Amino acid sequence: MINNKVITLNEFIVNKQWEFPFATGELTSLLHDIVFAAKLVNREVNKAGLVDILGTTGDSNVHGEEVKKLDMFAHEIFLSSLRTSGECCGVASEESTGFISFKGAESRKAKYVVCIDPLDGSSNIDVNVSIGTIFSIYERISTEDVSCNIDDFLQMGRKQVAAGYVLYGSSTMMVYTTGYGVNGFTLDPSIGEFCLSHRDIKIPAKGKIYSINESYRARFSKSINQYVDYCKEEDKASNRPYSSRYIGSMVADFHRNLIKGGIFMYPAMTKYPNGKLRLLYECNPMAFLVEQAGGMATNGYERILDLQPTALHQRSPIFIGSPDMVKKVGEFINQERLVTTN
Ligand code: AHG
Ligand code: MN
Ligand code: MN
To answer: Which of 29, 92, 240, 305 is the most buried (most CB within 10 A)?
Structure first.
């Protein structure tokens, strides 16, 4: 017997539309298209071990990394869904060097652009470990009815109108925000619908989990190593040592920390002053989500959402998660900055 009314993601999106002043339905429709594309990608992800989709295309993406077949599949699915949506005038994807401007008459009139990491954690595909999709939506700043331009994509993260991720994990989830809190939906594969399962998610102020690739310790700055030592230190009063958890798919690491409380870090390193993660496709959408859930995201000393992007594939160090933990690592970083600037 069903006791509670099940709310599907599509119903939820439509109901929420009326909370926006002057809502005209375009964002609702755009979100529907993203949800639909996510279901198609989910279908392929679930079959990844069965069909000849495993392995690599042999090509490298714009970051010089090997592209798995599923990355390109996801990129193409989201692109074609957004191209035909009529609500999106262009897309910037981690898998494409430049942005893609849609030429159709309807698309040119559309008022939104989308930034997307079609498949996050791609090194985990072949080993059946959780992966994800991250998306971010902005209102264009160029005039409608002409092609979009680079400035439409190089907006500060605080200008996002919506952001979210799909986690292809032990279950498939979609978590998104339009700036009015964060809600999570779990896919019921038997009916093919995402159903509201995590209403108004709030991240705990502090947690017990720290996530960082510790194999890079020799390349971290002193303050990052000091913070990692702090996480490992015995201290009953502050519930330490914390547990170390690192999946290698940002979506999965972020999602766990969002629910349980924790911090995810990808800092600057020697030779990689901006870390690895991309501001437009990974840092900004996750920063918008975490702030909407009561958390924090910084590059160590500045709010991620206040960074002005200057290039599509720009990277940024990131410290994201429970606010008390992000503040704490910030104290270590600022201390080191004070010492080195004096
Ligand atoms: P992508 O698969 O989209 O390139 O992203 C991988 C990212 C992110 O998901 C993860 O947190 C990080 O790379 C892992 O990097 P390391 O292997 O350097 O720790
Ligand atoms: Mn990624
Ligand atoms: Mn990716």
So the answer is: 92
Q: Which tokens in the block code for residue 105?
A: 């008459």
pTM (predicted TM-score): 0.94
Q: What is the DSSP letter of 300?
A: S
The structural domains of the chain, ordered by start, are: 9-198 (3.30.540.10), 209-341 (3.40.190.80)
Q: Is 250 in the pocket of ligand 1 (CB under 6 A)?
A: yes
Residue 295, CA atoms < 13 Å, CB-side half-sphere: 32
List per-block mean pLDDT (blocks of 10 residues) for the chain, which spans 342 residues. Answer: 80 84 82 96 85 58 69 95 95 98 91 97 91 97 93 98 97 97 97 97 98 98 98 95 98 98 97 96 98 98 98 98 98 91 70
Contact 320, 282 (CB under 8 A): no
Q: Which whole-number Å values give the CA distances from 48 to 44, 250, 271, in the listed order?
A: 6, 20, 35
